[in-house]
Automatic annotation (TrEMBL):
Record's keyword terms, sorted: Mitochondrion
Keyword Mitochondrion (UniProt): yes
Source organism (scientific name): Jarra phorocantha
Name of this protein: Cytochrome oxidase II
Amino acid sequence: IVLESTSLNSFFNWLKMFN
């Protein structure tokens, strides 16, 4: 579960880079 949360956080941070 912790890994999933970290992955989601990284994914959202990655999307922010494009915004």
